[in-house]
Design goal:
The chain is an alpha+beta fold. The protein has one domain. The protein is built from 2 helices and 5 strands, in the order ββαβββα. It has a 5-stranded antiparallel β-sheet, with helices on both faces. It starts with a strand and ends in an 18-residue tail after the last helix.
């Protein structure tokens, strides 16, 4: 079971539906500056407009790629992309 968080929205997703949900969210997010994240089983999934990323706790390269994409492609401020800590606390 993974947990999808966006603001006050909290949705649980079973692993067999994970990629269907991620694709649907990636296609639905239209505005730059928004992202969703899912946390579960030691991995974080980050969904931005037309992009899906994932990283494990020790994968600094993946986290750097997610942050760089969010800043450059979506205009998200770096302080809003402190996503590594979300593995320990999905609610930020």
């Amino acid at each position: 079971m993974l947990i999808l968080i966006c603001g006050l929205l909290h949705i649980e997703v079973t692993t067999d539906r994970l990629w269907d949900v991620l694709r649907a969210v990636a296609e639905t997010i239209r505005q730059p500056g928004w992202y969703f994240h899912l946390v579960g089983e030691g991995r974080i999934y980050v969904v931005m407009p037309h992009a899906i990323f994932f990283a494990d706790g020790a994968d600094d390269i993946a986290f750097d790629s997610i942050i760089a994409y969010g800043m450059k492609q979506c205009g998200i401020h770096p302080e809003q992309l402190e996503i590594k800590g979300l593995l320990a606390n999905p609610y930020g």
